[in-house]
Design brief:
Helix content is 66%, strand content 3%. The protein has 14 helices and two strands, in the order ααααβαααααβααααα. Helix 1 packs antiparallel against helix 6, helix 2 packs parallel to helix 5 and helix 8 runs parallel beside helix 11.
Length: 369
């Protein structure tokens, strides 16, 4: 890409970042105006997702009109997208189990359960909020904005910078340790890697959703940069802080740093088939018709030096015109015709004179031969 094209892509990335911040503020204000009770959080996440999709779709129409809308958002409705989401969910859930299990074995987990009907009602609302919120984050950080940053800086630099931005955004709202920042950085790197290798956010969305759902709702543990998603379970980790993560939960511990780093290699291996199928850049038609068969045929003819034989032209024989002079025959054809006529005349003459009873000779009469 030229410098001007890269600069233009960077401009669209900055516009997408600004729209994300504006949409977050607008969605929160709208949700607060409609409800101040339990539905407020899912309303906020749904409004945010709607505004992001609307804004990025408009930007795509203005800046990248040749790209498909679903592809530009990172949401192509291709066959098997549900399996891609499930693949990411399995990887995310397994990673959380690998983080929590050492905490339970080395230290301990104290679990408190709340089983009244209202808690389960709030649990359903939290599931909706979690699904919409993680998808909104993926559409921004691994969807349209990430694609524009990739066009501007290239895949490697775009992945690094987006992982840094994601770590800052995820840990800025509260107290954070070095471990939690590293976990957020490696997690953002992993999610960008999944989006790059599959050209979609289905795997990254499944991984992100399962990570937060397993950590916050299944085990009832704190999640960095998120609200408390589990109204049914509340878990407290006991043990040394390098294992439990202290007030930040297991994401602030050493095992979370190790697992989040190894997650890069797990995702690279798990998405190998998807990368082979979808990982190549999309070929966008340029609007110039090309005859591929004709080009291949001309190339073949030039290589073997024998162009295709042209069809012989048709010859039309016109009827002879009355009174028209016959064309003059060539000299060779005239002599050959005269010799043939002389030989034929001699043969006829012999045939006529041979059967006669009397031979007329020297009388000056008979057939001129």
């Amino acid at each position: 890409m030229s410098f001007l094209e890269r600069f233009r892509a960077l401009t669209w990335f900055l516009g997408a970042a600004a729209w994300f911040l504006f949409s977050d503020l607008l969605a929160r204000r709208a949700a607060e105006g409609l409800s101040n009770s339990d539905p407020q959080e899912p309303l906020y996440r749904l409004f945010l997702l709607f505004l992001l999709i609307l804004g990025f779709w408009t930007m795509r129409r203005l800046g990248q009109p040749s790209a498909a809308a679903s592809q530009a958002l990172g949401l192509p409705t291709r066959p098997g997208w549900q399996r891609e989401f499930a693949l990411g969910a399995v990887v995310g859930w397994s990673a959380v189990v690998a983080i929590v299990l050492p905490v339970a074995l080395i230290g301990g987990l104290v679990v408190t359960a709340f089983t009244n009907a209202h808690q389960f009602y709030v649990l359903i609302l939290d599931l909706v909020a979690l699904a919409a919120g993680t998808l909104a984050v993926e559409v921004t950080f691994r969807g349209y904005a990430f694609q524009r940053l990739t066009d501007a800086l290239g895949p490697a630099m775009a992945t690094f910078f987006m992982a840094v931005i994601y770590a800052i955004w995820r840990t800025h709202s509260g107290q954070s340790s070095t471990a939690s920042v590293l976990v957020s950085f490696f997690l953002g790197w992993t999610l960008c890697l999944a989006a790059l290798r599959t050209r979609a956010v289905w795997v990254s969305w499944g991984l992100h959703f399962a990570w937060v759902a397993a950590m916050g709702m299944l085990f009832g543990l704190p999640v960095t940069g998120s609200m408390s998603y589990s109204p049914v379970l509340a878990t407290t980790a006991a043990g040394p802080s390098w294992v439990t993560g202290g007030f930040e939960g297991p994401e602030g511990g050493a095992f979370a740093v190790l697992v989040s780093f190894l997650l890069l290699f797990v995702v690279a291996t798990a998405t190998g088939e998807l990368k082979h199928r979808y990982g190549h850049p999309e070929v966008v038609p340029g609007g110039i018709p090309v005859d591929l068969d004709g080009a291949a045929r001309r190339q073949h003819e030039a290589a073997i030096g024998s162009p295709a034989s042209a069809q012989a032209p048709l010859v039309q024989i016109l009827p002879a015109q009355p009174g028209a002079a016959a064309p003059e025959a060539p000299l060779g054809a005239t002599l050959a015709g005269a010799a043939g006529a002389s030989a034929g005349g001699d043969a006829e003459c012999l045939q006529r004179t041979e059967p006669g009873a009397e031979e007329i000779s020297g009388s000056g009469t008979g057939f001129p031969c």
